[in-house]
Amino acid sequence: MQNAFFHSFNGRLRDELLNETLFTSLAQARIALGCWRAD
């Protein structure tokens, strides 16, 4: 059960944030991830 949740979460994170955004710094990536998680 946990494994399926993590695979789903990772897939969604990759599809909705990481594949669409080119980060220029670690700080920018952290901010974007924080906004994505709050959504």
UniProtKB/TrEMBL annotation:
Organism source for this protein? Bradyrhizobium vignae
Q: What is this protein called?
A: Integrase catalytic domain-containing protein
**Superkingdom of origin organism:** Bacteria
Domain spans labelled Integrase catalytic: 1-39
Which InterPro entries does this UniProt record tie to the protein?
Answer: Integrase_cat-core
GO:BP terms for this protein?
A: DNA integration
